[in-house]
Amino acid sequence: MENLSVDFPTRHGTLRAVHEISFEIGEGEVLGVVGESGAGKSLTGAAVIGLVDPPGVVAGGKVKLAGRRIDNLPYEAMRRIRGREIGAVFQDPLTSLNPLYTIGRQLVETIRTHLPLDAAQARARAIELLEEVGISAAARRIDHYPHQFSGGMRQRVVIALAIAASPKLIIADEPTTALDVSIQAQIIQLMKRLCRDHGTAVMLVTHDMGVIAETANRVAVMYAGRIVEIGPVADVIHRPAHPYTVGLMGSIPSIVEERERLTQIEGAMPRLDAVPGGCAYHPRCARAIERCRRERPELEAVGTTRAACWVAKGRSR
Amino acid sequence: MSDALLELTDVARTFDVSPPWLDRALERKPRALLKAVDGVSLAITPGETLGLVGESGCGKSTVARLIVGLHAPTRGTIRFGGVVVAGEGAADAAAQRAARRAMQMIFQDPYASLNPRWRVADIVAEPIRARALDTPSAAIAARVDELLAQVGLAAADSVKYPHQFSGGQRQRISIARALSTHPRFLVCDEPTSALDVSVQAQVLNLMRELQRRLELAYLFISHNLAVVHHIADRVGVMYLGRIVELSSTRRLFADVAGCHPGPGDDGEGANRGRRRGPESARPAVGMRISPALSPCERALPPRSPGADPRR
Amino acid sequence: MSDPGVRAPAVGRVSRRGVGARLVRAWSGDVGWSFRHSPVAIVSAIVLGVCLAAALFAPWIAPTNPFDLKTLNLLDALAPPAWLPGARPGYLLGTDDQGRDVLSAIMFGARISLLVGIASVALALVAGVALGLIAGYAGGKIDALIMRVADVQLSFPAILIALLIDGVARALLPRDAHASVALFVLIFAIGAANWVQYARTVRGGTMVEKNKEYVQAARVIGVSPLGIMRRHLLPNVMGPVLVLATINIATAVITEATLSFLGVGVPPTEPSLGTLIRVGNDFLFSGEWWITIFPGAALVIMVLAINLLGDWLRDALNPRLR
């Protein structure tokens, strides 16, 4: 992704929700995109797969898949890429599946859309997929309707749909947020296993740092439509460089440590029409200097991660 | 136990979820009763925070609603401040109302828990007006300003509408509303689950500070173990309508660091145990902040999918 | 929903404070913007405003008072409109068979029509909203009872119900008393025929809202069910009701016109537009077309304006309701 921007034209002027963000996902890599509400992470995921809802529009930049540009493709070509090369898992399994069709029918439909298999072969592959995602008695349950499954099972079916055509990349937008805590762990393990076995890359968009910690290789932290820090997951979590990341990690309560008070970042994420000039985080930052108000920092290497900050610890300048 | 502020004794609540009588008659279906809460006993002392955790459907929200009187228990008694407010031997309505004045509730959804058509001043002042009708409006306005300041909002916010505030600010308004009648006990039903992490930190810090300053007791319901570990003094674990474990926070969470697989585990615990080698940096990170790896699983009996033993 | 006065604290009555400020806010908000950018809405509002003004101020601005027998001049009877030959001076739209100025008759008639239309809608609204709130909030047997009554009523056409009530009233009341209360009977009849749609809409909205947490919060605080319905649920379910009401005014006016046309509506001493149309109908084919056409046109224009405004209102409120 190079300099991708997403705009929303409104009555009061055009609002920019995602500002020229760039990052890469390697083959088989899991990139976590983490941020709070309003940071623009879901829009980024939607932009990759070409599903930005109007009036939102991709206003600039390039999205390349395996070297090929995909953001400027016509509708038909994009449709073929969706599913075959890029799969998607969304938050709410209730609405991701059509309640009127059996899951077998939905699976077979997806498989036959992308792979040249006949009905019987597609059905066999569907059963295979269901077993792979951990649904027992798959041959029987393939003819059940979505409402006959529990939430965790439904999400497994959605994952099966996503990997049905063996895509190279999966966009997962809050895949575990709507699930119970213990089911979350199972889904996370499932996704990790599948990625390992199939070599699929994953762009995991979530606000839950715990999920990122368990699943991702690298993580990008987004704030007000920009990436403020990006790097290997252990480094970002244990040795964050950007003050926002520091605050974020500090505000997460811990199961093992006892702390009197959680780190508190004053204020709130700015609304789209009120993003501060210079560094967007500077009004809330305890370490802001004059330069932060005037100039917007770019991502630069700070230790093992890259952070967009003038005062990040370990900064060479 | 006589100094307990809130006491639940063998409280149970059953819901009738039968199909309509016509269906039952025609298709010979039996009555279906759901035992949402099946014999819960607990006590909360003044100034204490009791955490209540469990998966969805375990009955913790029903317990909250039983305590505040939104449901009536089908068995057992609830005693608050020495007065029996629900169940067998309940005091008369006036005494109940008087006792309940010291109890308030905070809800999970900051967007649905405030009436979108009311101004903040009216929302915060509603408990005062509902209980003590003859307070002069000047006194009410002063108290509203005081409450808003206590929760970190400005007095000028009192004329605004809820949709002009963010989720965290709305939750503060909910807290201000709950504090307006000088309660001694707050029931908090997942108050931070719908909030971003940094906003959650603000609200949790605020709640702790208020507890210290105003000597409040909390019943803090959550599915997020890390949050409960941070804020609760004691923790109760609920499963299928019963409390299966109830102890101090420190003791309950003490095994996380030295976790080992237990019966009924689905293999994750085994993985956790095995991985504590050179890769221990990563699982430690996950365990530090991921409530998904819950010690609950060891406390729970193995269950078969699909069967609901509560029916 | 009226305020008891200044003594009681204005719980939830915030809407009353600063009516002017609220109007300014409404004008500059989304609905106001939609209005300003919709030519249909603006034209309809202007037309309706003119009709309302003419009807309201009829006693003062009508050229004559057509129902004051002393001012009628039989010699002016059946005069055509001013631009046709044979017209009499001072009668812009001509006169009817008793020398009544058609224009004045329209203005006074519109008064009656609008009065009956608005009053009957108000009645239906109050009754329907109240019953809908109770049915939605109470649920169970009360809800079932109210909805069954509503279902039974829906199986009868509104006109038939209005006729029925009117007939019963006529039978029960002594002859001379009937004339003076005819208007109220008519308003009651049309209102009683139309309450169901409000009840249904409000019941649906109530059932959705009552499970929301702010209602539970109010219950925890100790607000009585009546208080919850009045102060919490009512403001939140009224949106669709307003749209229904504007469109319903149009149908109520038409219903009243129909009843008057049939002869069972307002008494002939206070003719509405419907009565005028009926009276004029007899002269349609003998050449004095203006006696029925102009009241008919006035009715159509009024109803059309109300309908278009109601349509616009529904669309303007929709994105917010979503």
Architecture overview:
The complex is a heterotrimer of chains A (317), B (311) and C (322). With 317 residues, chain A is α/β, with parallel strands linked by helices. Chain A contains twelve helices and 13 strands. Chain A has an eight-stranded mixed beta sheet with strand order 7-8-9-3-10-11-13-12, with helices on both faces. In chain A, strands 2-1-4 form a three-stranded antiparallel beta sheet, covered by helices on one side. In chain A, helix 4 (103-114) packs across helix 5 (119-132), helix 5 crosses helix 7 and helix 7 (151-163) runs parallel beside helix 8. Chain B is of the alpha/beta class. Chain B has a domain at 110-182. Chain B is built from twelve helices and ten strands. In chain B, the strands form two sheets. A six-stranded mixed beta sheet of chain B has the order 6-7-8-3-9-10, sandwiched between helices. A four-stranded antiparallel beta sheet of chain B has the order 2-1-4-5. Chain B starts with 5 loop residues before the first strand and ends in a 12-residue tail after the last helix. In chain C, helix 2 (30-36) crosses helix 12 (290-321) and helix 5 runs parallel beside helix 12. The radius of gyration of chain C is 23 Å and the shape is globular. Chain C has helices at 19-28, 30-36, 39-56, 58-61, 102-138, 140-154, 158-172, 175-209, 213-221, 225-262, 273-281, 290-321. The A-B interface holds A 36-37, 150, 176, 180-182, 184-186, 188-189, 207, 209-211, 213-214, 233-234, 237-238, 247-248, 250-259, 261-266, 268-269 and B 55-56, 166-169, 196-202, 204-205, 208, 223-227, 229-231, 250, 253, 256-257, 266, 268, 281-282, 285-294, 296-297, 305.
Highest-level CATH class of the domain at 102-321 in chain C: Mainly Alpha
Write down the overall mean pLDDT of chain B.
79
Shape of chain C: globular
Overall average pLDDT of chain C: 80
The total count of strands of chain B amounts to 10
Per CATH, the superfamily of the domain at 102-321 in chain C is MetI-like
> Number of helix segments of chain C?
12
Kindly name the structural category of chain C.
Answer: mainly alpha
| Low-confidence runs of chain C | 1-17
CATH topology group of the domain at 102-321 in chain C: MetI-like fold
Based on Cα principal axes, name the global outline of chain B.
globular
The ordered string of helix (H) and strand (E) elements of chain B is EHEEHEEHEHHHEHEHEEHHHH
Secondary structure class of chain B reads alpha/beta
- How much of the sequence lies in strands of chain B comes to 15-25%
Spatial order of the strands in the main sheet of chain B?
A: 6-7-8-3-9-10
Rg estimate of chain C, integer Å: 23 Å
Q: Report the oligomer.
A: heterotrimer
